[in-house]
Design brief:
It contains 7 helices and 12 strands. By secondary structure, it is of the alpha/beta class. The chain binds cytidine-5'-monophosphate (C5P).
Length: 235
């Protein structure tokens, strides 16, 4: 019996949490904004620690946030977890995290701001890469009609909504492919785009509305309602 595909593959996860979150208007970096007495980062890490075959966790935090501050309410984290400072742009933070992820087969890049992403989404991404995709990202069907516009706001095209997905994180990759993509010196708006640019196949797997990104005060209010509803359901 050939069970090569069933063999467990080691997974490294980089949680990027080094953004300032200016659109949220909070007085602390976004990952440290509190929801029901816990940081967004702590919710994100709680889920990441449940990922199957997790071999390495790297948490990228804003400059000046030491391990104790960063992990204050995150513990317990797996032994060997690395906390390090990020950079000015998200790609700088990913690059810094990637350098510390070590020898793993699959790397997931996850936004701390998508703090409530269910573990099942991580599992779907890992499964797609383990099954042979160079990369896999969670995505949801687009409900709005999307218009392409020029600099004047004139519509230049209307892509067929059926072929569009709004993508989330974690974005997962064959570790060697992602390292090569970052070493290429090319720029891109997200990690998948960088890998796509190099001609690799990246698949979209089913995302989840709970993987929403906390960006605005309205998103934070949604996060607070969500956690309150969970608390109420266990009372
Ligand atoms: O700003 P935005 O919410 O799009 O950032 C997505 C994720 O990237 C967040 O979790 C944020 O903390 C992280 N980030 C980072 N370093 C930056 C900018 C953003 O780690 N320089």
């Amino acid at each position: 019996m050939n069970d090569a595909h069933a063999a467990p593959r080691s997974v490294g996860v980089v949680v990027v949490a080094a953004g300032s979150g200016t659109r949220l208007g909070a007085d602390v970096p976004k990952a440290f904004v509190q929801v029901a007495g816990r940081s967004l980062l702590s919710y994100a890490v709680e889920r990441v620690t449940q990922v199957a075959h997790l071999a390495r966790l790297v948490i990228v935090v804003p400059e000046g946030h030491g391990t104790a501050t960063a992990l204050g309410d995150v513990a317990p984290v797996p032994e060997g977890t690395v906390v390090l400072p990020g950079g000015a742009e998200r790609t700088d933070s990913v690059r810094a995290g990637l350098a510390e992820v070590g020898e793993v087969d699959i790397v997931l890049i996850h936004d701390a701001a998508r703090a409530f992403t269910p573990v099942a989404v991580f599992d779907r991404v890992v499964a797609a890469v383990a099954a042979g995709a160079s990369g896999a990202v969670p995505g949801l069907p687009v409900v709005d009609t999307i218009k392409a516009v020029d600099a004047d706001g004139t519509i230049t095209g209307t892509p067929d909504r059926a072929g569009l997905r709004a993508v989330q994180t974690p974005q997962g990759f064959d570790a060697e492919v992602l390292r090569a993509a970052y070493a290429s010196g090319l720029g891109a708006t997200d990690d998948a785009a960088l890998v796509e640019t190099l001609g690799h196949h990246v698949r979209v797997v089913a995302g989840d509305p709970l993987a929403f990104k906390v960006t605005t005060p309205e998103d934070l209010a949604r996060a607070q309602r969500l956690v309150a509803s969970w608390a109420a359901s266990v009372d």
